[in-house]
Amino acid sequence: MEEKKIFEKGNIAIAMAAIAAGCKYYFGYPITPQSDIPEYLSRELPRVGGVFLQSESEVAAINMLLGAAATGARVMTSSSGPGISLMQEGISYMAGDELPAVIVNVSRSGPGLGGISPSQGDYFQATRGGGHGDYRTMVLAPHSVQEMWDFTIMAFDLADKYRNPVIILADGMLGQMKEPFVTRMPEPIPYPPKDSWALTGAKGRPGRVIKSLYLGHLELEKHVWKLNEKYERMKKEDTRWEEYMLDDPEIVVVAFGSAARIAKTAVKVARQEGYRVGLLRPITLFPYPYKRIRELSEKVEKFLTVELNAGQMVEDVMIGVGARSKVYFYGRPNGVGSLPTPEEIYNEIIKTLKNEKVPVNEF
Amino acid sequence: MAEIARKVFSKPKSMKDKPFHFCPGCHHGIVHRLVGEAIDTLGIREKTIGVASVGCSVFLYDYFDVDVLEAPHGRAPAEATAIKRVLPDSVVFIYQGDGDLAAIGTAEIIHAANRGENFTVIFINNANYGMTGGQMAPTTLLGMKTATSPYGRDFRREGYPIKMSEIIAQLEGSAFVARGAVNKPANLNKTKKYILKAFEYQIKGMGFSFVEVLSACPTDWGMTPVEACEFIEREMIPYYPLGILKEKKVPDHL
Question: Nearest CB to A213: which of B47, B51, B70?
Answer without folding.
Answer: B70
